Q: What sequence folds into this?
């Protein structure tokens, strides 16, 4: 049985592993190895995640994890980007565990936190253009395409911005 809970220090290794493996599975064929390795080094290292599981406020609500038999099989988190506007910053699953409802459960608890604790009425997410794992998921959850965003640091990897009322 999968449990969704607020992450703590004991989940750091699992969060790092899930995010790393899912990032490779999602972008391994579309992004350079150097870019993927840099993102993983910057965002999914143990030190950063440890700081992020102990921090929780409306700017960053902390990580939530999906745990089964003591193993992290999914992780996600978000925060507020404006008054009444939340954003999903990260949502990854063990690549072998897709289509089991785990992502939906994580999205639901992050959305609940943003609404109840921070007053969110709208929610945004960035999805890599062409990410056919993420785009259908978010569209099925009511997110609507708003615009493209070309990152200045790497204009090769265009993001699509989606939002929904919550």
A:
């Amino acid at each position: 049985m999968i449990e969704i809970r607020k992450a703590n220090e004991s989940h750091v290794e699992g969060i790092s592993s899930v995010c790393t493996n899912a990032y490779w599975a999602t972008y391994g064929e579309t992004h350079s190895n150097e870019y993927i390795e840099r993102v993983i080094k910057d965002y999914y290292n143990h030190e950063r995640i440890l700081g992020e599981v102990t921090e929780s406020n409306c700017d960053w609500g902390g990580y939530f994890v999906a745990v089964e038999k003591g193993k992290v099989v999914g992780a996600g988190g978000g925060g507020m980007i404006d008054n009444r506007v939340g954003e999903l910053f990260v949502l990854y699953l063990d690549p072998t565990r897709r289509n089991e409802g785990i992502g939906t459960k994580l999205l639901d608890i992050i959305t609940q936190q943003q609404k109840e604790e921070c007053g969110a009425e709208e929610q945004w997410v960035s999805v890599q253009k062409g990410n056919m794992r993420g785009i259908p998921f978010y569209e099925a959850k009511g997110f609507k395409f708003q615009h493209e965003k070309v990152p200045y640091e790497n204009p090769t990897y265009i993001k699509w911005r989606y939002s929904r009322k919550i």
Summary: Strands lie at 2-6, 63-68, 71-82, 85-93, 122-128, 144-149, 159-165. The mean pLDDT is 94.
